Amino acid sequence: MKMTGPWIVTFLYGLLVATLVQADLRPPAVLNLGPEVIKEHLTQALRDHDAAAILHQLPLISAVQERSGSMPLLNSLARSFLRFIIWMKVTSANILQLAVHPSNYDQELIVRIPLDMVAGLNTPLVKTMVQFQMNTEIQALIRVEKSKSGPTRLNLSECSSSSNTLRLSLLNKLSFTLNSLANNVMNLLVPALPQMVKNHLCPVIQQAFNDVYDDFLRLATAPIALSPGALDFSLLSPAIQDSNIVFNLKAKLLDSQARVTKWFNSSVASQMETTPDEAPFSLLVRQDLVNAIVDTLIPKEELVILLRFVIPNVARQLQADINEINAEAANKLGPTQMVKIATYSGPQIMLDEGGATAAQNIILEVFPTNTDVRPFFSLGIEANYEARFFTEGDRLMLNFHNISIERIKLMVSDIKLFSPETMKGTLTTILENTLLPNENGQLRTGIPMPMVKALGYEKFVWSVNKGALKLTPDSSENPGSPPW
């Protein structure tokens, strides 16, 4: 006997349509990277590019000598002093804590990179090295830029160091004359140093940001293994919002043979709120994509249960319920009395700020024995669950609890017409002992989330937002160094 029909098709699709409220279009997934993550990874990239070593190589002596030739007001003593400088270079250099701020313009971030350097010079005129400290700041802009030859991406530009941020001070206690001569050297460096920093360090900063952006993009679009198949992300568009870098993502589901089974883009209305918050980073997954993942993990199937062997007390209760309807039918229930439970999709998750629930539409049939091909009756059931998202290690886990029957309809009956509400308690127990453990068993492997460790965190938490599932790092954890 076929278990499908016009009623069940309407029943299966009606629930989800009824629960979705039209809203603004949102991407299937959004990765928000806050300023803390941006500056940590840019700092690490500058270390990887040995940016501090670039500062040690600044050509200070040639810059001072070139600048002195264009300053006729220098006295003869100062010129003699400059001619006798035999060595001058940066002896120590540190890149201090970066800062990332929103700009006054849309789609733009300001990156500030403070530099702390100590330079020294030697001259036969002085027995000891003359040392002075140089503090300055590089400022650059991160913008969304469209390319004629490629996709939209984020670029770092307008990298510069202003003389307004430059501070120089002597570290040695010198004579009045030598102080004056050393000050002349520092005065010559004031206009020269910002240009040197721009020429030598800004290309390294730009390359470091390009590497960070490419790593962020690989991280955002890395496939997530499912069992079976995989979830594959690709970039819809990058954006800048507040102090965050935002990757709007589209997605596709792949089967075990890497064939695309379903596409997701921004053409579906969603209630998902994507505005960045104070979290170092967050990943938001739209409700319809969550449901598609659950469908992949819990495919449609048919369960066959011999009640007297599996849950004998429930078998006796079901027989008592049927006896109230038709005593002759109840007497036909044999030792192999059988229940078939057919699902036509995975549980449909509803995400709201109050938590997550799930609804699933089921066809349940009761047979007197396992040799019968025609059931006593067929029921259409809408079952509701409590859906609990949690983490185990680096995996997202989902379990269903507290099953209940929201609606029940008698579809076919060979024993007489009856109200199935009378056996709702028994049917709920059957589903609780058979369908629920089966579906939770299919979810037991969870979904790996390597993104968290790649961003330098060990632990993460999931929260339920309206229309979306949200991943954020555990607020009690201090981030580690990124493994790039």
From TrEMBL:
Residues 38-258 form the Lipid-binding serum glycoprotein N-terminal domain. Coiled coil: none annotated. Keywords: Signal. SMART domains: BPI1. Residues 1-23 form the signal peptide. The keyword Aminoacyl-tRNA synthetase does not apply. This is BPI fold-containing family B member 1.
